[in-house]
Hints:
Blueprint: H1 3-8, H2 19-30, E1 35-36, H3 37-47, H4 56-68, E2 72-78, E3 84-90, H5 92-116
Amino acid sequence: xxxAMAKTEPYKDRIELLQGTLDMLxxxxxxxxxxxxxxxxxxxxxxSGEVLQVETGxxxxxxxxxxxxxxxxxxxxxxxxxxxAKYYQLTAAGKKQLxxxxxxxxxxxxxIGGLMNADGEA
Length: 122
């Protein structure tokens, strides 16, 4: 097995996320404090047991959209590696949105679970 293949192996079965789910995961990652983009993606990956990986091409457009909606705010800061980075923080509106998204997710998960456990054929 090549080195490149070994590095990508944990992500071979990664799950694509719906936009609302991505928003919820980003808001959840920010619940415990400000993080820069890479820190958000790492929190989601670690918190999902390495199953979910948010690509840069999805993460930053979502962060910018969520900032425009007032769910998060951003400030420039310095990382632990002494690099300049934008740190995102949850706002009061973002906390309310997280509650709504979580409720919606639980409802959707229950509906899908019911459908998948239903006896009979479709």
